[in-house]
Amino acid sequence: MEQTNFHSEFQTKLADLMKEISTLPKTERTKLADLAGKTQQKHTELKKTVDGLQESLDYLRLSIKYLVFDLEATRRENSYLRKVIEEEDQTPEPGNDLGSDDFSSGDLNF
């Protein structure tokens, strides 16, 4: 918004300057009109550059928001999976009694 106001104000002042320049003698008028034209061109280039930078910043902000969202989702998923693993570790599986001694039967042949 502020940038648009600045651009409009610049255009208005440049138009006023061009009116003033048109009242000068031809020798001075040509030189100053060329300078005003170059100023206009540089201002247009600068505006394009600033607009491009603004778009890049907007894209960067959006990308950061997506990355933060993804990071938070990954952390939640990681936390959930850790809880699932902890619960599995605490609950013995049926038929897999690790406390019994299966080696006492003597079935092992080396």
Supply the helix-strand structural class: mainly alpha
What is the overall silhouette? rod-shaped
Mean pLDDT level: 85
Distance between the termini: 84 Å
Query: Could you state the order of secondary-structure elements as H and E?
Result: HH
Helix content: over 70%
- Overall tally of structural domains: 1
Biased composition (Low complexity): 95-110
Region (Disordered): 84-110
Features of the shown structure:
110 residues, mainly alpha, 2 helices, 78% helix, rod-shaped
Record the SSE blueprint.
Elements: H1 2-22, H2 26-90
Helix pairs in contact: 1-2
If you had to describe this structure to a student in words, what would you say it looks like?
- The chain has 110 residues and is mainly α.
- The protein has one domain (7-89).
- The protein has 2 helices and no strands.
- The chain has helices at residues 2-22, 26-90.
- α1 (2-22) runs antiparallel to α2.
- The protein is rod-shaped.
- The relative contact order is 0.05.
- The mean pLDDT is 85.
Short description:
The chain has 2 helices and no strands. By secondary structure, it is mainly α.
